[in-house]
């Protein structure tokens, strides 16, 4: 069993290693910015802890755990826009840096990415995982 602090370090490293090199960069740069802000990452850590109760190889679900975090940050990005918030985790919000339209589109791209990451769960659990995630 891994300690929560170890899981946090490992999921942070996994998320930090993500490359957002797709075009248009104007859409993906804000996503990298939001995910670089860090945070508690409680959702992916809890997911890894629960998985680790039954399986030792937690790396198998790093990508779906990343999907949970990307989804959460997508909701924050849109929430900041709706609330007209200026700061998130001590940094300017996406809509303040790149504008409302980019914040909306980058958030929408994050939603799609969250589903893509989540769909990389173990194949034998794909249907159940995607139904639960969508709910």
Characterization of this structure:
It contains seven helices and two strands, in the order H-H-H-H-E-E-H-H-H. The protein is mostly helical and 135 residues long. It has a two-stranded antiparallel sheet. Strand 1 and strand 2 (91-92) form a beta hairpin. Helix 1 packs across helix 3 (42-52) and helix 3 (42-52) runs antiparallel to helix 4 (62-83). The protein is globular, with a radius of gyration of 15 Å. The mean pLDDT is 94.
Task: Kindly summarize this structure in a few lines.
This protein has 135 residues and is mainly α.
> How big a fraction of the residues is strand?
under 5%
Low-pLDDT residue spans: none
Measure the end-to-end span: 29 Å
Q: Could you give the order of strands across the largest sheet?
A: 1-2
What's the pLDDT, averaged over the residues?
Answer: 94
Q: Kindly state the percentage of residues in helix.
A: 55-70%
What is the radius of gyration?
15 Å
Instruction: Sketch the topology as an H/E string, one letter per element.
Output: HHHHEEHHH
């Amino acid at each position: 069993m891994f300690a929560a602090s170890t899981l946090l370090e490992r999921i942070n490293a996994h998320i930090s290693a993500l490359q957002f090199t797709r075009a248009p960069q104007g859409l993906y740069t804000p996503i990298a910015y939001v995910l670089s802000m860090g945070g508690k990452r409680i959702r992916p850590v809890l997911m890894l802890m629960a998985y680790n109760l039954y399986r030792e190889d937690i790396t198998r679900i790093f990508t779906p755990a990343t999907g949970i975090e990307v989804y959460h940050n997508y909701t924050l990005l849109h929430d900041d826009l709706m609330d007209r918030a200026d700061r998130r985790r001590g940094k300017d919000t996406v809509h303040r840096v790149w504008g409302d339209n980019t914040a909306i589109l980058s958030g929408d791209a994050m939603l799609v990415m969250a589903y893509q990451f989540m769909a990389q769960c173990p194949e034998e659990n794909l249907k159940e995982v995607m139904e639960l995630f969508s709910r």
